[in-house]
Amino acid sequence: MEKESRRNLIISGLGSSNGGTVRLAKIEGIGRVDGDIICNDFILNGKADVHGSIKASTTDIKGTAAVKGNLHSDRLHIHGKVTIEGDLIGENIQLNGMVSVKGKCETEKFNMCGRLQMGVLNAGNIQITLQGNSNIAEIGGEHIQIRKQPGIDFAKWLKVLSIPLGNKLTAKIIEGDNVCVEYTTAEVVRGTNVTIGSGCEIGLVEYKAKFLQEKGSKVNRLEQI
Length: 225
Fold this sequence. Notes:
The chain is mainly beta. It has one helix and eleven strands, in the order E-E-E-E-E-E-E-H-E-E-E-E. The protein folds into two domains: 1-86, no CATH class; 103-225, no CATH class. It is 4% helix and 79% strand. Strands 1-2-3-4-5-6-7-8-9-10-11 form an eleven-stranded mixed sheet, with no helix packed on it. It holds the Pfam family Bactofilin. Belongs to the bactofilin family.
């Protein structure tokens, strides 16, 4: 069933709709949207295929979503599995589950718990809790913390989806003012204050003021700049 008006785009059950400019875009069930969506609030409980971009003030996704374009939302919360073909842009982004962004991600606050595949991540404050293997080519920010925190329930969910278990981030470059990483493999880590925690394999660390290396980590080259 699909209902659409000038102010709202609502799909309930199984349905499809064209995009457009609306006040509320809400999908409860399984929905397909053809075209861009511009709205105040985008809400998904279920599964959605958006053949276009989403621009919203607030976005709340619970379930599975595929966005063929960009996702631009001031406040974004994802709990589930989401694939974005374009860029992810926002002010406050909170992700839980499995998220793939083929373009770049730019935000002020980035908080992720789960598994992440991304090209470039730029944010003021970055908090990543690894629950599954992740890959981010370049990470840049003021405060960066990457840690491992195994979750029993999440691990069971990954097994159901036949996803290889692991808690590791692979990156080319990580650069920030204050950088603290663990269970990370990177070619270069650069910052003012740098902490390399356990489970890390780093090719080159460049730091300005303070460097700390914990046991169970490997740094091939260390330079103070």
